């Protein structure tokens, strides 16, 4: 889905990236209520789950049922993560609108996360593209380049290798290729440099920024990515989540804080901030006791704040 014009698209990943890192499984009905609240706040792309073996991620075993609910929400792009052709087959059968597949720039992380080398994952991208072309040509297909800015298992990741893999993923059939700071190691100069290189190589096929706040640089890195030309940003309500196969990789960028930053800058997100903050209640009801993060929910909107986005009709604004 394209971002508002002029503006950015906030892609909410909490129902997948957030929940996969929480030991407690959120009930299916609670997930559906949370996704409905996110949609009511104006979010128009949500990663609702993952078609990964339930043995690896039992928290997401009900993804097909969640998809069936999410596709009934008007104007919503329903996205799921798939690790391979088998997952893509199940996702297409469930009726999703968009597939995202992780390709790690770190071989150590790739083996831990999906049990394949980066080169083997490139072959999977080709297989998913062929399946999509045959069975569901209208389904979008993106690749997120994990550990693009460093890896807790391997350490530094060569930028030339990141760009090589991004180009190879596009050539294998991905519509877009984004960069992910899976382990929260990026800094703004690095983000600006690497995304600038990605745009130089892929142009309009350069995709989303998936950045973490593990070391407190999440918003600064998002701003650097925006300056480099990125217009789609992944974020998680309440900062929920991380990567269970990258030790110490906590802290997705908080959706509430990211939306506030852009709206305060005059960059439209299409998201109603009071409605977004209200959606935290649905998340807390589904995961009672789970800590949530974010500066905006505690501080509130500044007096006289005028958002770039016109509040939704019937919202809490």
Your description of this structure?
By secondary structure, the protein is of the alpha/beta class. The chain has one domain: Alpha-Beta Barrel (TIM Barrel), CATH 3.20.20.70. Helices cover 41% and strands 14% of the residues. It has helices at 14-18, 28-40, 63-70, 85-94, 107-114, 118-135, 159-172, 188-202, 218-227, 255-265, 273-286, 296-299; strands spanning 9-12, 45-50, 77-81, 98-104, 140-146, 176-180, 206-210, 232-235. It is globular, with a radius of gyration of 18 Å.
Q: What is the CATH C-level name? A: Alpha Beta
Largest sheet: 8 strands, parallel, barrel
Count of individual beta strands: 8
CATH topology: TIM Barrel
Going across the biggest sheet, name each strand in turn.
Answer: 1-2-3-4-5-6-7-8
N-to-C CA distance: 25 Å
What is the average per-residue confidence, as pLDDT, rounded to a whole number?
Answer: 92
Percentage beta strand: 5-15%
The CATH superfamily turns out to be Aldolase class I
Number of domains: 1
Task: Outline the low-pLDDT stretches.
Answer: 313-317
**Element order: H for helix, E for strand:** EHHEHEHEHHEHEHEHEHHH
Which range best describes the helical content: under 10%, 10-25%, 25-40%, 40-55%, 55-70% or over 70%?
Answer: 40-55%
Judging from the principal axes of the Cα atoms, what is the shape? globular
List the keywords.
single chain, 317 residues, alpha/beta, TIM Barrel, 8-stranded parallel barrel, 12 helices, 41% helix, disordered C terminus
Write the layout of secondary structure elements.
Layout: E1 9-12, H1 14-18, H2 28-40, E2 45-50, H3 63-70, E3 77-81, H4 85-94, E4 98-104, H5 107-114, H6 118-135, E5 140-146, H7 159-172, E6 176-180, H8 188-202, E7 206-210, H9 218-227, E8 232-235, H10 255-265, H11 273-286, H12 296-299
Parallel strand pairs: 1-2, 1-8, 2-3, 3-4, 4-5, 5-6, 6-7, 7-8
Helix pairs in contact: 2-3, 2-11, 4-6, 6-7, 7-8, 8-9
């Amino acid at each position: 889905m394209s971002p508002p014009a002029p503006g950015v698209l906030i892609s909410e990943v909490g129902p997948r990236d957030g929940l996969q890192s929480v030991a407690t499984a959120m009930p299916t009905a609670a997930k559906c209520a949370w996704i409905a609240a996110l949609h009511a706040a104006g979010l128009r792309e949500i990663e609702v789950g993952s078609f990964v073996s339930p043995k690896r991620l039992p928290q997401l075993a009900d993804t097909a049922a969640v998809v069936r609910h999410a596709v009934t929400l008007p104007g919503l792009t329903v996205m799921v993560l798939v690790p391979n052709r088998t997952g893509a087959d199940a996702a297409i059968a469930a009726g999703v609108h968009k597939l995202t597949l992780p390709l790690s720039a770190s071989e150590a992380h790739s083996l831990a996360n999906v049990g394949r080398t980066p080169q083997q994952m490139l072959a999977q991208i080709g297989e998913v593209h062929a399946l999509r072309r045959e069975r569901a040509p209208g389904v979008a297909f993106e690749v997120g380049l994990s550990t693009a800015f460093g890896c807790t298992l391997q350490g530094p990741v060569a930028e030339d290798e990141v760009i090589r893999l991004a180009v190879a993923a596009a050539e294998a059939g991905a519509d877009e290729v984004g960069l992910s700071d899976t382990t929260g190691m990026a800094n703004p100069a690095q983000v600006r440099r690497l995304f600038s290189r990605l745009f130089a190589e892929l142009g309009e096929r350069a995709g989303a920024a998936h950045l973490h706040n593990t070391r407190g640089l999440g918003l600064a890195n998002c701003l650097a990515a925006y300056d480099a030309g990125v217009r789609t940003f992944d974020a998680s309500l309440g900062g929920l989540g991380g990567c269970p196969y990258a030790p110490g990789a906590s802290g997705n960028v908080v959706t509430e804080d990211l939306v506030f930053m852009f709206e305060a800058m005059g960059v439209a997100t299409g998201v109603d901030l009071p409605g977004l903050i209200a959606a935290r209640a649905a998340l807390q009801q589904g995961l009672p006791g789970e800590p949530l993060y974010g500066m905006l929910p505690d501080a509130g909107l500044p007096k006289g704040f005028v958002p770039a986005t016109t509040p939704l009709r019937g919202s809490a604004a």
